[in-house]
User: What shape does this take?
Amino acid sequence: MELRDYIAIRRAYNLVRQSSPRESRMTFAEFAMLCRINVLARPLTTTEIATYQNVLRPTMTHRTKHLSEMGLLERSKGDSDRRHILCSITDRGEAFVRETCEQLCIILRLGTALKRIDWERACRYVDAMGSVELKASDLVLLGILNSDGGITVSALVDMLGLLQPTVSMSVSALEKAGLICHERDAVRRLSTVMLTQEGRAKGEDICKGIDSLVVHRR
Assistant: This one.
């Protein structure tokens, strides 16, 4: 997967999430979990989900419980091993995945390289992306890397589809960690953020994980 496609899909999801009712909002990782089960077309054990997203059991349990409470996922005990919980997507969950992916496609067809994507292909993209856990600050770091130079906070907001406060807090955290620095353009009276050497190294390291993602066809 290319960085531009990764950013485009995360941006589209952020925009769709912001326009959704608060009670139906979920994190990208939670939505990826639904897409994973939908793509594989079979229930997954909690162990399989934890391995897929490379998270600890408490984190995975919290996510599956949240989706279950929303009526999108059904949790049941396995037949062979009662200690394992089987997670199945409900009819409501399948409809939610399709509807959300169709909304992603509408946004992706406007000015991105994914102009001909359909909802099933979008679902497979999200499924692949769900195995890489990135925080908002990681996305901001990738956004700056993708800009190939200085970029303003407002431009990052537009590029990533994140809220202004989220981007601003991420920028502050990245600057405090020594991963980015500010540069003021006296002519245009703009303040841009740029990667430090350490920030570029971390961004390129994250990109390696994205480059390794493979979106399988049906």
